[in-house]
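Lecture 7 notes: from sequence to structure.
We start with the chain below.
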Amino acid sequence: MKTAKFVAILLCASVALTACGRSSKSSATVIAVSTGQQLTDLKAAYDAGAISQKEYEDKREEILKD
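Predicted structure tokens for the same chain:
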């Protein structure tokens, strides 16, 4: 358990330190995801209980509409 806490603290510290070194410029990365991949990810979220059936159906319709 101590190891897990240590790893979590180390990870948080490294993220915080990385953010400190950034310049004022920001950049955005755009990743194109296929409709099929979006639907697969959405189904996985639904199956895992992360979203409700209504949320699943609404988002599925939105994805298929685009």
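Points to note: Residues 30-66 form one domain. The helical segments are 2-20, 35-47, 53-65.
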